[in-house]
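Structure (tokenized):
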């Protein structure tokens, strides 16, 4: 198979930042994807529908001319989120969920939730209105090993939430462990997961290949090979509970290569090429369309995209770095040659 034609995919987990940084990167996602759920962890965070509407307009204004790209928004859950905001979110067609960041779990998450018990009324209203809870599933207890934080979160926080509110629709974002695969697989249909390209392709050895590699540092961190294999098996299985979410997270090269490097991998320029590589390695190219183009839309109750895109088996060199406003940024697999190339849209 040298040409792969599929429905245009969506990205169900994306970071775009704001201002000049957003203007520098949004075109990469708009080029490949029809829609994306844009994360709300700006500074200050996007905590209500009014702020989300304004942010959405800034995204639309920053798109390259001729782009056909629909930004969907998630709202940032805090200890002070009002129950009424759930109703406003449910009535806003461009808002598709609330994002749960445990306070301090990742970039710009300091305003996140400190005690789940305090937001139970909000979660109850979300369950009643069918609003999706999008979860960064890691505990932040410094006594918990960083490689165990997803598994502990599932055991201590997510399982009790599901037990208390079995009708709540949940997406466990950017899963990295066999524990997460087992939780999602065993849960009812209203629980799903997104999977990134890096967690399909790489295990934690990649962080240290040839020396410390800050551009492969993300949160949740890459895990052991057994976990990578379990996540890849789930994503490529055809199970509709697993779908594409790049978690593409742009940081300037300077910030990644600093004494305390930022967490996040900028995958947007080569996202579909990377996913195609992972699915081909798994012998599952025929299942890429479901994972990338169907499962997420079906879960969120949105129509599947009718436009078609072409992935072509053709050597593609990834630039060592790209422009990032006044800065430079390093993409996923910088300086490497990929076997696939996104060749644009095609006639149905």
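Design, position by position:
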């Amino acid at each position: 198979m040298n040409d792969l034609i599929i429905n245009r995919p969506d990205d169900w987990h994306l970071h775009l930042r704001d201002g000049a940084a957003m203007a520098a990167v949004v075109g990469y996602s708009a080029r490949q994807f029809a829609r994306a759920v844009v994360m709300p962890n700006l500074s200050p965070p996007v905590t209500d529908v009014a702020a989300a509407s304004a942010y959405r307009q800034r995204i639309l204004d920053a798109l390259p001319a001729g782009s056909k790209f629909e930004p969907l928004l998630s709202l940032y859950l805090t200890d002070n989120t009002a129950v009424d905001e759930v109703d406003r979110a449910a009535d806003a067609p461009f808002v598709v969920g609330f994002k749960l960041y445990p306070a301090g779990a990742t970039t710009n998450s300091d305003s996140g939730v400190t005690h789940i018990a305090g937001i139970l009324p909000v979660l109850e209203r979300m369950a009643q209105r069918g609003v999706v809870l999008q979860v960064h599933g890691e505990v932040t207890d410094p006594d918990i090993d960083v490689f165990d934080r997803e598994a502990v979160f599932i055991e201590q926080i997510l399982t009790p939430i599901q037990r208390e509110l079995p009708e709540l629709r949940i997406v466990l974002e950017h899963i990295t462990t066999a524990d997460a695969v087992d939780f999602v697989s065993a849960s009812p249909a209203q629980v799903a997961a997104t999977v990134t390209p890096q967690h399909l392709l790489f295990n934690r050895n990649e962080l240290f290949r040839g020396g410390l590699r800050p551009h492969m540092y993300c949160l949740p961190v890459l895990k052991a090979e057994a976990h990578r294999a379990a996540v890849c098996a789930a994503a490529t299985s055809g199970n509709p509970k697993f779908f594409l979410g790049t978690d593409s997270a742009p940081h300037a090269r300077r910030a990644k290569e600093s004494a305390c490097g930022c967490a996040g991998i900028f995958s947007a320029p080569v996202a579909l090429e990377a996913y195609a590589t992972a699915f081909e390695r798994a012998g599952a190219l025929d299942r890429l369309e479901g994972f990338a183009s169907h499962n997420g839309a079906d879960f969120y109750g949105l129509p599947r995209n009718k436009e078609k895109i072409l992935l072509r088996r053709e050597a593609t060199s990834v630039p060592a770095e790209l422009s990032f406003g006044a800065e430079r940024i390093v993409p996923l697999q910088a300086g490497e040659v990929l076997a696939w190339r996104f060749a644009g849209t095609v006639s149905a």
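Reviewer-requested clarification: The longest strand covers residues 308-317. The mean pLDDT is 96.
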